[in-house]
Predict the 3D structure of the following.
Amino acid sequence: METPCCISLFFRTFAPMTNKSSYTILFALLLLTACKGQTQQSETVLTEQIEPFVSTTAVPQSLTEPVNLLKQRVGRGTSEILIERLGYTTSYNKQRKTPNWVAWTLTKQHTYGNHQRQNERFEEDKDVPTPRATYQDYYNSRYDRGHMCPAGDNKWHQEAMTQSFLMTNICPQNHGLNKNDWNSLEMKCRNWARQYGEITIVCGPIFEGEPKYIGRNKVQVPSGFFKVVYREKPQKKAIGFIFRNDGSSQPWHEQVCSVDDVEERTGYDFFPQLPDDVENLIESEETLRDW
């Protein structure tokens, strides 16, 4: 504030004046002008202090995009047609007429629903080239039309339920395995989805030994089946299971293995989108008590 200097200038200029009334009026006007200038300056500073800060630093898109865990890598030379359905993604092998693998994310909400399987029929998948698996290929073969992504995981939506009966989601499966131990693991996975909120499941056939086929379209019969399960919370974990495709007793909790073991048997790379250090850690584990 420059009031003292202004007062000094005032006295130098108007000291000779003898009219005390004029002297008083001029002095008052000078003080009012100085105070007005100080008020305007304070208002300007206040406006600058409350002006909102807007960041110009953008969040990298790669940090906001979710990781797609539904794409697995098959071995070199393996026939593959990728098909994305409402409830799952399938890697179809046109030579074997079966999926290589089927993957889906099972949420707690998706374990419930009113859409039942009673009115559904198995249908050939016209999105893949002929020759392809049909309903008749399984007739009198002594093998079930075994779901990879089960109907029980698709009760949440009518279209998802219908698509689960497409033959690109089906493998020749021993009846005893399909109805007992494999089914028990499917129910356990639904319990895990409810417990942890969300899990990702990949399953499919294993082909070892002398090839065996059924039906006119020569659908190859698996020697076994695998399932790998991944969760994010409360900490990242993964676990694997391998079953023989026969009717012997195979309690699901006795078929536990690591994801690395399943990769060795199939030649596939599961969850390749995860950071290498995370993938290497979780895929070497085979501890059921963590689940």
